[in-house]
Fold:
Amino acid sequence: MSLFLASPSPLPAPGAGLFTSPFLLSLLIWVPVIVAVTIAFMPNPRGRYDTLIKQIAFFTNLALLVLLFIAYNQFESFLPTVQYEEKISWLPAIGATYHLGVDGPGLVMMLLSGLIGVAAVLASLGVRERVRAYFTLLLLTQASINGAIAAHDMFVFMLFWAASIVPIALLVSGWGGPRRGLAASRLIGYWGIGTAFLAVGVFALYAAAGGQSFDMEVLLKAPLNSRVQLGISAVMILAAATRLPLFPLHGWVRDVLSEAPPGVTVIVAGAATRLGAYLLLRTMVQGAPAATHLLSPVLAALAALTVGYAGLAALRAVDVRHAGAYLAMVPGAITVLGIAAVSPLGIAGTVLSLFTGGLAAALIAGVCATLSERAQSRNVLVLSGLAPRMPNIAWLMLIAALALLGVPILSSYMSDVMTFFGAFKTQPIGAFAVAAGLAVSAVALAVLLRRVLFGAPLPDSPGASDASLAETWYLGLLAGALLWVGLFPGGPKIPGTEVPLFDPGLINQMAAGISDMAGPYVLPTPAAPQQ
Amino acid sequence: MKYLLLVPEALIVALAVAVIVAGRFAWLPRPWRSFVPHAAVVVVLVALGVELWAGAAVGTYFGGALLQDRFALFVKAVALIAAGFVIACSDWVAEDSAYLGVAMPLLAAFGVMVAASAADLVGLWAGLELVAVSGVVLVALRRPDLGLRLLVAGGIGTTLLLVGLVFLYATTGNADLSGIRAGITGEAPTLAVVIPVLLLIAGLAIRAGVAPFHVATLPVGLGASPVGAALVVGMAAVAAGVVALKLTAALLPIGDSYAPYTQVVAAIAMLGGGVAALAVRSPRPRMAYMAISQLGWLAAGFATHFRSGFGSSLFLLGAFALAATAGPVLLGRAEGGEPAVFGLGVVRPLRAAGVALALLSLAGVPPLPGFFGELSVAAALAQSHNFVLLGLGMIGAVLCVAAAVGTLRVLYMQGPLEESRRGAAAALPAVTALSSFGAIAFALVLAGYVVFGFPIMGLADQGAEALGLR
Structure:
């Protein structure tokens, strides 16, 4: 276990302490909003400034990613406290504060959101219609996801959680495929109901904790009896299940991920859906540990049903985007299995799988979207033997498949191993069932790859071309991130030295913030002065 | 100096009367007529400034018939801002009479101000009726049949209200609100008090157009001119909300006996409004149904019977007043149904932005004022452990969000109708400097309502305290 949790690196990272900002998290939330509003009111006669708008959106996201890497570099790992904290009294009458802050899992999610944000913009460079509105909504989506991750007050969390629904629904219904209306309706329906569950859960928690504050420090540490914990956790599971999604509340996933444009598919599959698992981690593992123990078999069963269903549905799908959408459900279920494990290793795997699962889900859904656009068809009976004609997409699809299955050298291997090792101890039946479901998914992936990439080309299939530069970049970025953490789980080091480039590596960041998961290191205390 | 506090009311009434008289006798030269709305907006802004400057003082007037407190300050400021938006954002080409179109919102705002300051039953009733009459005048101008219908429906509501008020007076022996409260404090609720309360609930529900009573008033608002719709859908409901808040506070000692009925009204309004908003496609009915759903949240706040619930309801009332009165006016002549607003975001971007904000606020979408208001009420519901109502409200809000997204899609993602296919019912609203200013100001005020949520909610909380809640 120490193999995974400890990177022996108490050395400070180069540049630590160079940059400090009391508004770092606010910048990550409000800069995209300000840029979105600026874009929305920018004059753009006959699409004259479409390219400029795309550049603005791209460089905004890139700047946010740079900011995030700085935050990551300066993060005091091994401290089980919230960092980059901002706290302003907001609505004292009901006890809501503008309280932001990230701990280990929060930072991991932030990093994921930053990477997905850049990938989503790159995937959207092919948008030609109503470019201004599209990128305005995309940036608002990005801001709302960042806000939900950074929120350390449940009122603020709810605000950003709910705020992401409208821009995503508009993106799907405005730029989606032929069934976009249905897809947007389903998204609003499921996510809206999920938000209603979340609100009921949060308000119940608020009432049970005395009705004075929405601050997570108060709500998640309130001494609640096990019955209240159980009720609140059950509602939270329902809220998370609509977002992640988990079987049987997955009704939106096929339509949304297959009808949305690739950029939206990436941001939904990669970041927006991970908020569901993040919610469970926050409210159940941190806030209701007794209920988590009680409900862990339910969570394991939901995870097993989800993986099994996703694998079977992908196996019989004749639409390549439908298959991609179903397969994108798999990483979320593995994340939930880690929570069901309720063990340090399982939870550590869960936090890492938030990152790796988000990337893997975004990659598989994105590559299927790009492939179907480039091949001018979504039908797997028509698409065949595409590997020679689109080698880049073929390679990236292969990496996506391997990432979903948790193959070594990809970061999902680390998270899957930790999750399964953790879960086999406490939820052996559930873990076995998920593993069996994963085997079905492997078969589905193998069948999909064989048919689409390596089968005999059909003479009358439509013409296909390889991914464009932007598409290769966005898919490559996702694949590269999966490889980065897979190859350097303890954090990359400056070549030829033992000095960590990012101290102390993503895999250790996740431990910070969960008290019983804190790493084995303590901050070096200054030596007593020699007399 | 004491009467400085009445300057806003005096200014508003004087302006309304002057505009009506000027219109009747055609005193103004033709070139000046187009500046009547501009002048009205300036006067409303002056009145608002005086209200905010001098309104912090507390006092009573006319032998205690009128009361200036934090509740009155909050509501009067909101009513003035809402009236200002109605006048500033209107498409005066679409109105049947510019004079009455300016005067009636002013009179309606005056009615709300009277109800907000009223210390007795007569003041409450007078304020409510003044708002209702203003609506009837504007509706009857375009559609006399609908005007008659509104008069009859309103008459039924008024009858129920009056009977309830009279019974209340007869039972408690008091017409002033503090006296009524003192009279029933410590007494067990009797049938003689509870029955009038139920009549009052029914009368107010009809006046506000809350489901299921909306069947009487809603079609009227939909057939009226944009300003008429704003008065029927928005201002009348605001007045009913103000009266309900004051009456509920006065009847608080027997709150438990009628709370279930208020909760039923709230639940039906929240869910029914949401379902109906999703079922219709035409933007004005959709907006009206979403307003009904938000009124349900308002009623849910009353049902909590404690200060934070009332404070939250008052905060939500402010958000509701802004969106529900400005929304129909910004929408303009949308009688042609959904096609009338196809691509409004392209051809009238400022108006479309205003409509979108109003819709989203009514639907309770974050981060708009309606969201904060609804969640504040939800927090109060949680404190009172009323999770069923909270859950139903959330479902209603989800339905409203779905409806709002449907209209936003039409506003921004459909191409505008060709001019040849655009009849009078789907005519585009005219673009004027005043309407552009109004739309921008509307967006800024909504943003300000959120950014300055702390002091605004603080004032609402003080308003609830002024009603006697601790």
